[in-house]
From TrEMBL:
InterPro entries: dITP/XTP_pyrophosphatase, ITPase-like_fam, RdgB/HAM1
Organism: Streptococcus alactolyticus
Presence of the UniProt keyword Magnesium in the record: yes
One of the record's GO cellular component terms: cytosol
Function: Pyrophosphatase that catalyzes the hydrolysis of nucleoside triphosphates to their monophosphate derivatives, with a high preference for the non-canonical purine nucleotides XTP (xanthosine triphosphate), dITP (deoxyinosine triphosphate) and ITP. Seems to function as a house-cleaning enzyme that removes non-canonical purine nucleotides from the nucleotide pool, thus preventing their incorporation into DNA/RNA and avoiding chromosomal lesions.
Binding site for Mg(2+): 208
Protein name from the UniProt record: dITP/XTP pyrophosphatase
Length: 340
């Protein structure tokens, strides 16, 4: 055995592993032993053979001297367990396996070789799995309902961990703009996600975010971006907010929350919805040069710092959007498995 301990843990999955065993998956009480045995039979093959390559005249075996030893404490996602074991194999055996999801199945590839297909109970839709002959990529994709490349980049980092490729609206220039006519954050996020999903047939992620000020009854809320009118700018919105709170002098009465709702939609399936709030207060004057929107006026919790004084890394780790994305990553695999 090596001294290194591997671990993966989220709200619904918890695995602990070490290298040097004999390819074993063992589960705590309540985890189906037969299912783990099936997974283990599939995964153990990855430690024993290398595939043929075009520049090799014949196949050759690379019998591994060691294997994995994994204890499954909690499991809701076969994908997460397969990815955990494959990551161990890659690190310990100098392999380059990649794990992706396709139509509810989990696939493992290396270079141009398909090595493993793990099917959920009941199988998957054959047409959805094999796709169109014109497809040039293998694996599921998610379309982010934005044209913002910066936002797309952040989501791409997150979904890569789930073996899912990310696109955005710049890849679909002919799609119409979806009017945000809802009166709640969830209604607007659903409108974008479900409308674009129905138009494209793809899995789509959309978000709606805004600032809620308690003294204003939750305004500007879903109208945050256009609080000061149809031609609103960040500067005019901040000026209007200060004007609306001009007679509210007590710090505790200027409480507010940034809010984000994320919705993932897929054709014919129930949408996944997560949301998060970032509590704070509205300052008497703006401060800081970072961020955007109401960040210069938003004081973070009891810290006394304005959101616009935080670095991007600091903000992403504690903000409403950061918290919502964390919730999404914890719930996504379970949601996807239920929808298969």
């Amino acid at each position: 055995m090596t001294d290194k301990i591997y671990e993966y843990k989220d709200a619904d999955n918890w695995f602990i592993g070490e290298w040097g065993g004999a390819n074993v998956l063992r589960g705590f009480e309540g985890i189906c032993a037969n299912h783990l045995a099936r997974l283990n039979s599939e995964l153990s093959k990855l430690t024993k053979h290398k595939p043929c390559h075009k520049d090799h005249g014949k196949c050759h075996s690379d019998q591994a001297k060691n294997g994995y030893n994994v204890t499954v404490i909690k499991k809701a996602s076969d994908f997460q367990l397969i990815r955990f074991v494959v990551d161990m194999i890659n690190q310990e055996s100098d392999r380059q396996f990649e794990v992706a999801q396709r139509a509810g199945a989990v696939v493992v590839t290396e270079a141009d070789h398909l090595l493993l297909v793990h099917l959920p109970k009941g199988g998957v839709d054959a047409k959805a799995f094999f796709g169109n002959a014109s497809e040039t990529t293998f694996g599921d994709t998610i379309l982010i309902a934005t044209r913002n490349e910066g936002k797309t980049k952040e989501f791409r980092k997150m979904f890569e961990k789930l073996g899912i490729k990310v696109e955005n609206l710049n890849d679909y220039p002919d799609l119409p703009e979806v009017a945000e006519t809802g009166t709640t954050f969830e209604e607007n996020a659903r409108l974008k996600a479900e409308t674009i999903s129905n138009l494209t047939g793809k899995m789509v992620l959309a978000d709606d975010s805004g600032l809620k000020v308690d003294a204003l009854g939750g305004l500007p809320g879903v109208w945050s971006a256009r609080f000061s009118g149809p031609d609103a700018t960040d500067e005019s919105n901040n000026a209007k907010l200060l004007h609306e709170l001009a007679m509210v002098f007590d710090h505790k009465d200027r409480s507010a929350q940034f809010h984000t709702t994320l919705v993932v939609a897929a054709p014919g399936k129930e949408s996944l919805v997560v949301e998060a709030d970032w509590p704070g207060y509205i300052a008497m004057e703006p401060k800081g040069d970072n961020g955007f929107g109401y960040d210069p006026l938003f004081m973070v919790g009891e810290t006394g710092r304005h959101a616009a004084e935080l670095t991007a890394e600091e903000k992403n780790s504690i903000s409403h959007r950061g918290l919502a994305v964390k919730k999404l990553m914890e719930a996504f695999s379970v949601w996807q498995a239920k929808q298969s």
